[in-house]
Write a structure and sequence with these properties.
By secondary structure, the chain is mostly helical. The protein is 56% helix and 0% strand. The chain has five helices and no strands. The chain is globular, with a radius of gyration of 13 Å.
Length: 80
């Protein structure tokens, strides 16, 4: 398992166990539409993976109708 650096005073276990806020996940889903299978894969992924996807997913084109394949691939590549 990977160790993450955090702000001073934040214990490592707290950072690792905290999930991405549901509102941020929903906003991501609105910006990058995906099917139910991709959504479940993202929302059930470990918290560090969710955070990585929310922070680093940058598709080449915005405004597509479905990002399911891209998101699923990105989640797989970023899982611990």
């Amino acid at each position: 398992s990977r160790l993450e650096a955090g702000p001073p005073g934040v214990r490592l276990m707290e950072r690792r166990s905290a999930t991405a806020p549901p509102a941020l996940l929903e906003a991501f889903k609105q910006r990058y539409p995906m099917d139910d299978r991709a959504w479940e894969f993202l929302s059930m992924s470990p918290a560090p993976t969710q955070r990585s996807v929310l922070e680093r997913f940058k598709p080449q084109r915005e405004g597509e109708r479905d990002y399911s394949r891209l998101i699923t691939s990105f989640v797989k590549a970023n899982r611990d």
